[in-house]
Description:
The complex is a heterodimer of chains A (351) and B (249).
Chain A lengths: L2 E4 H11 L4 E4 L7 H12 L3 E4 L3 H13 L4 E5 L1 H6 L1 H9 L4 E7 L15 H6 L9 E3 L4 H18 L2 E7 H5 L1 E4 L28 E2 L6 H22 L2 E4 L6 E4 L3 H15 L4 E6 L1 E3 L3 H8 L6 E6 L5 H9 L5 E5 L8 H10 L2
Parallel strand pairs in A: 2-3, 2-4, 4-5, 5-7, 6-7, 11-12, 11-14, 14-15
Antiparallel strand pairs in A: 1-8, 6-13, 10-12
Helix pairs in contact in A: 1-2, 1-7, 3-5, 10-13, 11-12
Chain B lengths: L23 H14 L6 E5 L7 H4 L3 E4 L5 H11 L4 E7 H7 L1 H10 L4 E6 L29 H4 L5 H5 L7 E6 L3 H19 L5 E6 L3 H4 L3 H15 L3 E5 H5 L1
Parallel strand pairs in B: 1-2, 1-3, 3-4, 4-6, 5-6
Antiparallel strand pairs in B: 5-7
Helix pairs in contact in B: 1-8, 4-5
Amino acid sequence: MKKLMKGNEAIAEAAIRGGCRFFAGYPITPQNEIPEYLSWRLNEVGGAFVQAESEVAAINMVYGAAGAGARAMTSSSSPGISLKQEGISYICGAELPCVIVNIVRAGPGLGGIQPAQSDYFQTVKGGGHGDYHMLVLAPATVQEAVDLVYSAFDKADKYRLPVMILGDGMIGQMMEAVELPEMVDVNALAKKEWATDGTGVGENRRIVNSLYIQPDVLEEINHKLFAVYAEMKKNETAVEEYMCEDAEIVLTGYGTVARIAKSAVHMLRAKGIKAGLIRPITLYPFPDEAYARIAGNGICREMLCVELSMGQMIEDVKLSVNGKVPVEFYGRVGGNVMTAEDIVKKVMEGR
Amino acid sequence: MAKGFKKTKMLTDTPFHYCPGCTHGIAHRLTAEVLEEIGAEGNCVGVAPVGCAVFAYNYFNCDMQEAAHGRAPAVATGIKRVHPDKIVFSYQGDGDLASIGMAETVHAAARGENITVIFINNSIYGMTGGQMAPTTLEGQKATTCQAGRIPELNGNPVNVAEMLAQLKGPSYIARVGLFDLKHVMEAKRAIRKAFDMQINKKGFAMVEILSTCPTNWGLNPIDALEWSKNEATKTFPLGVFKDITKEEE
């Protein structure tokens, strides 16, 4: 049965059902409903909730809990995610699985509390120090947020890395009808032999660590991590291609912006303009193959990248398209959100 | 003849990397001996810091996590909340615990997080080569206060034990020295007490251990012990600053 839920609360419940048993977080708008919900809900399922003294402490509590074998999560919004970058780098270095939710707000600095997509670079290109990546998932609906958060714990465990849910203030704050998945039986999950559960002695000791002072050893670790990312690219890359088969102009955007762009596709088609949409669901790994294929299909003449930023994802779009067709940009920033009409107007300007 | 001295099984066979005369080795040994006494073998997770003790995960014979600089109490919190019945401890130096990690320290203590913290105070940044620490004494020379620490210029040393003892959360806060046998034995009793608090679910316990750094203090090992005994204790007096079992009596 479907249930009407606010995005943040739906994300929190999906995490519980996906097996999350540890959460640490710090208050920041517009994601507060996630820790508020989990503060009572985790107790019901025998998990632990800690309101941390800072974002820095919260991500390090997740490091400890994930290293101890629990399915662990933290959530925040842009300025808080900046503070977590140190911990994210260590978590990647120590190959720990966890889920991090970023309900993005506008920046830089304190910025504003309205929706934005200006953390794309930080999320997919690094943010913290060192060579690493996360699996980055961008839900466009509350239902998709539920489904992605739910499966994020499996993927984090499989690849032993953090999965970042890159939402925005709209996903967090709006209410939609959702179908909630079944509760995962955490006791039936595969035992993490590498986790420090306290039982290790002598040869069987487990050490959670990201320090490798021998250059050859660290180089090998770097290559090992990137072999995982290559495997993840093969298995996890996800993209929605919408009405692209005959599209002469292909819009592209992720998250809630893709929904607005989808409305623009319909409006353009009503005007006789063959429009389509590419919506990446994984931002890392980026679905470059879909862009290259559609840009080279002989029908597509141009692309328009639509973002709530000054132009961040467009760099990956251009790399993927590799000059086959021109890629234009349309963005709103500061917490402003474009309408479908705005996108249509932008497309019509060139005609 | 019965052996009077043997290595505790809670230390691995990996040789310590510490400088000659440094008392980290004694602090490791005391901590490990207490872990053995309380039956922590196969029942324990330690958290190593960033600083001279960064390789502590190679020495303690138990599951270990290496934390980011200063974050050990947060990491230990995550571990303890997942495994409340396991012994969880952090082993941290003064730069780690009292400077970059002060927020994590104070709040783990304020929450009464049921962990044990072994705090090594040697009044200097050892690993990075002798810079001024939050615990560097007034007048003490360091590479970033070469004329000696002048409070007007360089601020004042932080008395962590006294500060944390003001909080409601901690169960046991003590400061001990390692400069002679009597004090080494006293230090061990304090460490034992700090772990007993955790076993009895009394909440956060910390033992601050005045340690030596002959290399960066520019002293030979014996003079370093003397300096710890005669100079460091003037700013950092030994004692028990909080003990809720005493208060309960």
